[in-house]
Inverse folding.
């Protein structure tokens, strides 16, 4: 199974990246950082169809399992990740063959907040856009991982959560 993890944080080497590195090491999967691409906001008239989104999405759609990794910003996914999701609309309108390739593929999500209580208070709602988008795209939603980094390092409790998440999505 080909696995890809897509990081969508405002920081390349911040907390979400620490979580991504942990997962990547365990799953030996490929990695994409959305910060390395120019992907502009969704445009109804597709005036941005020549930016980096469509070529990137063609690569993404080749994977069997796509894991989205986002920080928690204002109780929701990051802006960079939301822009990526908005642009998937292009795969339903102007490049349907890429959208169709997603059918039957798997999706998962891992988020990183600043503390346990804040993250666990929103877990059901936070998952919803990923779970429902997967369903709309005909993808199988494998589950969500909830993490936080209060100081510098990943805590033992977060490692346990991550190990459970990895076991669930790798099945
Ligand atoms: C714009 C912004 C909004 C944030 N909103 C939340 C929030 O709603 N809940 C939360 O637990 N942490 C919030 N945080 C803290 C981050 O989720 C947390 O520090 C995370 O680990 C940062 O990951 P990063 O280094 O990849 O950006 C916010 C941070 C920023 C910069």
């Amino acid at each position: 199974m080909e696995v890809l993890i897509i990081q969508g944080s405002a920081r390349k080497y911040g907390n979400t990246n620490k979580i991504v590195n942990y997962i990547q090491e365990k799953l030996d999967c490929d990695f994409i950082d959305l910060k390395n691409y120019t992907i502009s906001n969704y445009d109804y008239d597709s005036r941005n169809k020549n930016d980096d989104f469509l070529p990137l999405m063609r690569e993404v759609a080749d994977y069997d399992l796509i894991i989205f990794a986002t920080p928690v910003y204002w109780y929701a996914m990051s802006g960079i990740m939301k822009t990526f999701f908005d642009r998937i609309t292009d795969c339903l309108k102007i490049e349907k063959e890429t959208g169709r390739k997603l059918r039957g593929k798997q999706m998962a999500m891992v988020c990183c907040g600043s503390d346990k209580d804040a993250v666990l208070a929103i877990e059901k709602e936070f998952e919803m856009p990923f779970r429902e988008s997967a369903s709309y795209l005909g993808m199988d939603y494998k589950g969500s991982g909830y993490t936080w980094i209060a100081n510098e390092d990943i805590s033992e409790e977060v490692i346990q959560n991550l190990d459970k998440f990895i076991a669930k999505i790798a099945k």
Summary: Residues 9-11, 14-16, 71-75, 112-114, 118-119, 149 surround flavin mononucleotide (CB under 6 Å).
